[in-house]
Amino acid sequence: ENCIIFCSKLAKMIALSSLRLYPRIGCKTLPALCGVYHPHTHNLPKKTVRCYSTEKTSKNEDLTVYEGPLSSRIKIVKLFSLSTSVAGLAAQPIVIEQASKLGGTFLVLLSSGFVGFFTFVTPFLLHWITKKYVTQLKYNPPTEEYTATTISFFLTPSHTKFKVSDVKVPDVPGMFTSFHIGKKALFVDPRQFPDTSHYVKIMGYDKPIDFKLELIENPKDDATKKDHKQ
C-alpha cells in the first residue's frame, strides 16, 4: 500500500510540473488569477503571472531615418583602390629600375606616370565622387537635429550634425548633390527614406512656395522705359 501511495504522489508531482506552462524568467506571481483560465489547471491554486521587461527605451535615442543602399559597395571599391595604391607605391621602385634597364629615360617616365596615376589619382578621384554620399542619416526628436554619416578618405565614418534651418538647397542641383550644409555638399536618395516626411522637411518642400518677381535694380533703366512709353 505504501508503494502504491508513493507512486500516486509521484505521478501527481510529475503531472503538476508538466502543467507549469508560464515562464519563470522575468516574471512575478501574484495571488489573484485576473480571469486567466486553463482547463487543466482549474483545480490548482489560483495565481496570476506578471511579466516585466528591464529594457527601457530612451527618448534621447537617435532614430535611423535613412540608409544609403550603395554604402557597402562604395567601401569595397575604396578599399580596393587604397590597396592597389599601396601595392603600386611599393612596386614603383622595382618598375623604375626595370624600365631604366629596358628603355632609358623615356620608358622610366612613361611607366612612372602610368603607375603614379593609379597610385595617387584614382583614390582621390573616387573620394571626390563619393565624399558627398550619405551612408546613414539619424534624427534626434528632442533636439530636432540630424546626423549625416559619410565615408572619409581612409574609410572612417565622418559625421555632420545639422538642423533644418542649416540646409541650403541649390536652385540648380549639381552632380551628386541634394543639399548643402555650410560648404559641405551631401547627396541622398529620396526613394530610400522609409518615412518621406524627413526628406520633405530637409528639402523644404513643406514650406510655402515663394514666387519672386525680378525687380529692376537700376533706376536709370526704369526711367528710360517710362520715356519710351510716353
Automatic annotation (TrEMBL):
The chain crosses the membrane at residues 76-96, 102-129. Coiled coil: none annotated. One of its GO terms (biological process) is mitochondrial proton-transporting ATP synthase complex assembly. One of its GO terms (cellular component) is mitochondrial membrane. The keyword Protein biosynthesis does not apply. It holds the Pfam family TMEM70. Keywords: Membrane, Transmembrane, Transmembrane helix. It comes from the Eukaryota. The keyword Metal-binding does not apply. Belongs to the TMEM70 family. PANTHER family: TRANSMEMBRANE PROTEIN 70, MITOCHONDRIAL. This is Putative transmembrane protein 70 log mitochondrial. It comes from Nyssomyia neivai.
